[in-house]
Write the structure tokens for this entry.
Amino acid sequence: MTPALSRRDCLALGAMSLVALPPAQATPEALAAAVRLFAAGAVPREGRVKLDIAPLVENGNTVPVTITVDSPMTADDHVRSIALFNERNPQHDVAVFTLGPRAGRASVATRIRLATSQRLVALARMSDGSVWQHEVAVVVTLAACVES
């Protein structure tokens, strides 16, 4: 008969398994894959989306971001979702917002963490199935999201 593990042993095993996990790969290819997944077969086009973020960020721990989309937000022509992706954070999908015609305007704002200088891509999926994007390069002087 195998001896039962104590609660302390189980917690120690769980903590060791978390430490053994490899960090997420931050590559331009992974960013492109995340964008393709969101676009769901549509080819993202430039325009209609504006990603507003400072080009030089002093502290990557809290970075204000605003994304607006040029849309009348009517029942026939509206934004279904807005997504924000990054190139070098451990996770590429920063945020996805779901909207509808009753939102009134297609604009979202939040604060994010940035691991280092990198590209950010904002995408909008429209009610007609089209996907629009805006890409911005950001320089970060004090990094956040650093895994050791």
